[in-house]
Amino acid sequence: MTMRDPCDGLEVYRVGGAVRDELLGWPVKDTDWVVVGATPQDMQRRGFRPVGRDFPVFLHPQSQEEYALARTERKSGHGYTGFIVHASPEVTLEEDLARRDLTINAMARSADGRLIDPFDGLADLEARLLRHVSPAFIEDPLRVLRTARFVARYSGLGFRVAADTRELMAQLVSSGEVAHLVAERVWTEAEKALGEPHPAAFFHELAQCRALNELMPELVPLLEEGLACMSVLPDVGEEQARWRWARLVEVLDREAREQLSKRLKLPRAWCELAEQVACTRHLVAESVVGEVEVMRWLNAIDAWRRGERVAPLLALVRLSEPSLADRLAAGWQAALKVAPRDLVAEGFKGAELGEELARRRLQAISVAIQA
Questions:
Q1: Are residues 211 and 226 in the same domain?
Q2: The domain containing residue 256 runs over which residues?
Q3: Pairing mode of beta strands 66-69, 57-59
Q4: 269-279 burial, b if ≥16 CB within 10 A, otherwise e?
């Protein structure tokens, strides 16, 4: 017996990013759907599970993809949450698309494959232009960050922000709307941008409309130096975004890094890596790196308890100072051979054990880096 498709009889359209990326030949990761002419009760009767808090969104019972009822929005307050949402069977597809941010995100495909493009998104896609759908762009400050993130994703394809759209982004800053964005939402967009092919473009775009001054002021004075560091990374696999951030902020002093971390409410792991990378930067900048400096560095990165931190930081040093990286690696391996259990067997305990362990590690490092 063939199971009936819950979408049968519904007016359903594939919308937004899935349509955009398909037209670009870009990998389509997530597919969003809009349903026109239905009510929440209609959806639930068909087996769709409601998941939207602020507007009616439902999960398909088989595919688990998101299906949203067509809706309109009206500005009612500050920030990206200050909207009254209206969803009803009378809302048309064109009205739903009109509330979107950029024309390239305001296209839809019907079930038979027809492209619905009321705002010339395809033309802008071909012109490599990021352009706002309507003056309502200025109602949502989150669109500043989203637009900058699209630059980070697609600038390698030649995409640029339209001049009048950039003016609206600047107005969102000068009006104070951007200041109403909560830290968690700002960081969510920044983290996504750090995973895009050209993350520097995100920060450049925010700087150009002065949103960076509002959201991450600590970065502004040393932005170009930080971006230059960010472009040079060791092979860190899936940790690339976190390392990009660490390299971006390594040029700041500790107080500025801490202020920025607090401002954005960064996850602890991101803060810790930033401090390790900054500490490594200071080590490389030392005029003389002897056993004391090596020991201080290993202590600072908590190498004795978190030995997995050493290898990627050594790889970072190797990018600019390969001979220093070799000496650091030799010192680290020598220090590891000093086993606390051997000192305990010799009778050391308590504070004396810690002091003797540090002394012998320092001695081992001294011999190794001079060899």
A1: no
A2: 222-281
A3: antiparallel
A4: ebbbbbbbbbb
| Helix (H) or strand (E) segment spanning residue 226 | helix 223-230
**Residue 371 to residue 292: CA distance in whole angstroms:** 16
Total of domains in the chain: 4
Asked if residues 153 and 197 have their Cβ atoms less than 8 Å apart, the reply is yes
Q: What is the pTM of this model?
A: 0.90
Longest dimension (CA), the chain: 84
Q: Looking at residue 85, what is its pLDDT? A: 73
What's the CATH number where 85 sits?
3.30.460.10
Per-residue pLDDT, 4: 73
Report the SS3 class of residue 198. coil
β-pair type (160-161, 129-130) = parallel
Contacts of 26 (CB under 8 A, 6+ apart): 20
Q: Which residues of the chain have pLDDT under 50?
A: 1-2, 76, 79, 82-83
State whether residue 14 is helix, strand or coil: strand
Give residue 228's identity as a one-letter amino acid code.
A
Contacts of 35 (CB under 8 A, 6+ apart): 10, 11, 12, 43, 67, 68, 69, 70
Between the alpha carbon of residue 238 and those of residues 85, 253, 261, 318, the distances in Å are: 38, 27, 22, 20
Model pLDDT, residue 357: 93
